[in-house]
Specification:
The complex is a heterodimer of chains A (200) and B (129). Chain A has 5 helices and 8 strands. Chain A is of the alpha/beta class. Chain A is globular, with a radius of gyration of 19 Å. In chain B, 33% of the residues lie in helices and 9% in strands. In chain B, α1 crosses α3 and α2 crosses α3. The chains are: A alpha/beta (200), B alpha+beta (129). Chains A and B meet through β1, β2, β3, β4 and β5 of A and β1, α2, α3, β4 and α4 of B.
Chain lengths: 200, 129
């Protein structure tokens, strides 16, 4: 593991490996719900700051009249064991916050794209994003109570998905269902690396 | 805090954009940390028994960060615990790093890690939840 400056010693502390998984999809597709269902702690929220002045400059002094604003990110945690933690990040729902995605996506293990069959096109930007960057992803088709059930094949055709990309029906409110989606993602990552995880 | 904008409208600001804040007051206007490498899930670990009295220039938020990082905490959780934006926390952590008060452990780059053993452990761990 890389460490920055300092002596890098752990001094008796275990520093777990933290893996990032992104949860993406259109507004209202169930991202926050899925993160909540899976997180072992109440989902936390943090903010990133957007400032027209701040993006390309190093210093805000002297620009007191410029306004800044913030975008909230939801995240949750799953402790696998003492050495391994998963962090789930709900991606900000609007395309214009793409630069937050870039930071979230850096070093991420992979992503879950939640699709809402009532508004399938809403997840196109997420799928494009991960395809273009070569980040492994699975599509979770969130089954809302009032949505028509489509066959997975029909959804796959509508999304024009690569045949290798797993699709899973899921209920974002249900922890077991969410776990199934994450497992399919990790297995997909392993397959892509040519080292499939043996099924238990 | 939501403020009415004087003068021109800012392209980022509308009802969806969230509250308008001046969060960088705490950092004296600095928006870049003194060191790169504070990934959202990088673990910050405070130096054991830090002598904070030797650094009167540090803000209460710096001191809280050192306290919270005593047990090793990822950047994003520090930000959530302090209810500060991640960008602000990064600047404050840079101050602490340059004084040797914290160490930062970067997460593995997913391009070459995790190896298959880790992926298997994740799958097994998820199944067992």
């Amino acid at each position: 593991m890389d460490s920055v400056r300092y002596d890098g010693e752990r001094r008796g502390h275990r520093v777990p490996i933290a893996l990032k998984i992104l949860v993406a999809g259109g507004f209202g597709a169930g991202k926050t719900t899925l993160v909540s269902a899976l997180s072992e702690v109440r989902p936390l929220q943090t903010e990133e700051i957007l400032t027209g002045a701040g993006i390309d400059t190093d210093d805000l002094s002297g620009v007191e009249t410029k306004s800044t604003t913030t975008v909230a990110m939801d995240f949750g945690r799953i402790t696998i064991n003492d050495d391994l933690q998963l962090y789930l990040f709900g991606t900000p729902g609007q395309d214009r916050f793409w630069f937050l995605w870039d930071e979230l996506a850096f070093g991420a293990l992979g992503a879950v794209v939640l699709a809402d069959t009532r508004r399938l096109a809403d997840c196109f930007p997420s799928i494009d994003y991960f395809e273009q960057r070569g980040i492994p992803f699975v599509v979770g088709v969130n089954c809302f109570d009032d949505s028509r059930r489509f066959s997975l094949e029909a959804v796959r055709r509508a999304l024009d998905l690569d045949p290798d990309v797993p699709m899973v029906l899921c209920d974002a409110r249900d922890r077991q269902s969410g776990k199934t989606v994450l497992i399919s993602l990790v297995e997909h990552v392993a397959r892509q690396r040519g080292e499939p995880v043996p099924t238990a | 805090m939501r403020t009415d904008l004087p003068g021109h409208r800012h392209e980022w600001l509308d009802d969806d954009a969230g509250p308008v804040v001046r969060p960088y007051t705490l950092t004296g206007g600095r928006v870049r940390p003194s060191a790169d490498g504070f990934d959202l899930v990088a673990y910050v670990l405070a130096k054991p028994d830090p002598d904070l009295a030797a650094y009167p220039e540090l803000h209460p938020e710096h001191r809280l960060l050192v306290e919270l990082a005593g047990r090793g905490t990822p950047v994003v959780e520090l930000a959530a615990d302090l209810d500060l934006a991640v960008g602000v926390v990064r600047v404050l952590l840079g101050d602490l790093l340059s004084r040797g008060l914290v160490a930062v452990h970067q997460p593995p780059r997913a391009t070459y890690l995790p190896d298959n053993d880790i992926l298997k452990a994740v799958v097994d761990g998820l199944r067992a939840l």
